Amino acid sequence: MSDTRREFIAAIDQGTTSSRCIVFDRDGRIVSVGQKEHEQIFPEPGRVEHDAAEIWTNVQEVITEALDKAGITREDVRALGITNQRETTLLWDRATGEPVHNAIVWQDTRTDALCRELGRNVGQDRFRRETGLPLASYFAGPKIRWLLDNVEGLRERAEAGEILFGTMDSWVIWNLTGGTEGGVHVTDVTNASRTLLMNLRTMDWDPRICESMGVPMAVLPEIRSSAEVYGEARGALAGVPVASALGDQQAALFGQTCFSPGEAKSTYGTGTFLLLNTGSEAVNSYNGLLTTVGYRIGDQDPVYALEGSIAVTGSLVQWMRDQMGLINSAAEIETLASSVEDNGGAYFVPAFSGLFAPYWRSDARGVIAGLTRYVTKAHIARAVLEATAWQTREIVDAMEKDSRVELTALRVDGGMTSNNLLMQCISDVLDAPVVRPMVAETTCLGAAYAAGLAVGFWPDTDALRANWRRAAEWTPRMEAGTREREYKNWLKAVERTMGWLEEEN
């Protein structure tokens, strides 16, 4: 028996702006971090790309950096997990390992027209019943189709089996496990559920949809669970089992140990992603949410989730700082907003690029409503924080309507959770406890947990729950009457944002 104290799990987070490798100990605590940013490529408006070769080089560097900082070798690492920016799409040559084009990033909107065309007479919901997703430029399937249509000779090569498709988890795993020398071509259920090509009921690629979308099935990776050994790493981690893959938001759900129906996590960053565990049932949304796979452990039944996203949360605070000059630092907004008792009657709906869930109105634009001479910049600051709280409430309401599962508590992570006033505000409007964990890096932690489960480093999810430690908790303080009145005012303000842009032809 080896000395158990010296065993660790490593996780790679291949994110939108950087790649990281974090080493965790048995208690789920961070031992070391390696991180490196990669270039954001904007070939023209609405287009966002990444150089996948640069990303793979960075991944190798951050692994070495994390091992060095921890003062450990590959012998001390029991397993490696992967989490990744979701929906970012890559095609590469099976024989040479060379990408055929830059990766097309999830934010890229070049497939807008294609998605409308694919919707034909049915519209956005054409594949929703099978995939849980609306037809939108966000997802990977239409991005594959765009590449096949726009890169010379690519479709023929794809049909001949010479080309591999992957989201970034697949690219990293293929390279880690040997690349052209026997690399494993797999993805996990969570990433596959973001392609518009996977059937949520069968957990497999849907041949009918692939045909409708014009994607040859020869390019697709094998779909595996989120926690199992896919293969062994080469290079700096030679011999270490590569044992998990989870899209970043699902990894955060896992890292927050939301293993029971009704448990939810919300990641407050530039925008916000809220996921609710709905158990073994894939719940169809009639309220503008996405149905997605939460995770699947080995050969257990998959666990599903509902997902809601808010476009503008942290970026609204940045806007207050950079465009408006009302604060000098993001942290200052809390001090300013705390200097007043309430919002002074002002409501701020940041529909800067339209409204996301549950409305999906691209004709909306931002408003500040309820202004009087009484309102100061402190009231506006408070309205800015309340905007994130009310938008969270709208998504939670939609989730409860769709799933008939009541939210028990909201576990939070991301940069904005350092704002205590905001956290109190969210608890008040949800009328539910809001809990922040000790380890803020829940995305990497989730990938580490899943990998550790796959190799028996942790025996079961109960052991992971035991690791989860609360750093802070906020409980509701607002009276029911006040909550309902304020919510009504918020909804009135939201109405004022709609139809600002005239229907363009």
Describe the structure in your own words.
The protein is an alpha+beta fold and 505 residues long. The chain has helices spanning 52-70, 112-119, 128-131, 140-150, 154-159, 168-176, 189-192, 207-213, 248-255, 314-322, 332-338, 377-403, 420-430, 442-454, 461-467, 480-497; strands at residues 8-14, 18-24, 30-37, 49-50, 77-84, 90-93, 103-104, 163-166, 186-188, 198-199, 204-205, 222-224, 227-232, 241-247, 263-268, 272-279, 290-295, 303-310, 347-349, 367-369, 409-413, 434-437, 470-474. The mean pLDDT is 93. It contains 16 helices and 23 strands. The longest helix is centred in the C-terminal third of the chain and has 27 residues, at 377-403. The strands form seven sheets. A seven-stranded mixed sheet has the order 17-18-16-15-21-22-23. Helix 11 packs across helix 12. Helices cover 33% and strands 22% of the residues.
Write the layout of secondary structure elements.
Elements: E1 8-14, E2 18-24, E3 30-37, E4 49-50, H1 52-70, E5 77-84, E6 90-93, E7 103-104, H2 112-119, H3 128-131, H4 140-150, H5 154-159, E8 163-166, H6 168-176, E9 186-188, H7 189-192, E10 198-199, E11 204-205, H8 207-213, E12 222-224, E13 227-232, E14 241-247, H9 248-255, E15 263-268, E16 272-279, E17 290-295, E18 303-310, H10 314-322, H11 332-338, E19 347-349, E20 367-369, H12 377-403, E21 409-413, H13 420-430, E22 434-437, H14 442-454, H15 461-467, E23 470-474, H16 480-497
Parallel strand pairs: 1-5, 5-14, 9-12, 15-21, 21-22
Antiparallel strand pairs: 1-2, 2-3, 4-7, 6-8, 10-11, 13-14, 15-16, 16-18, 17-18, 19-20, 22-23
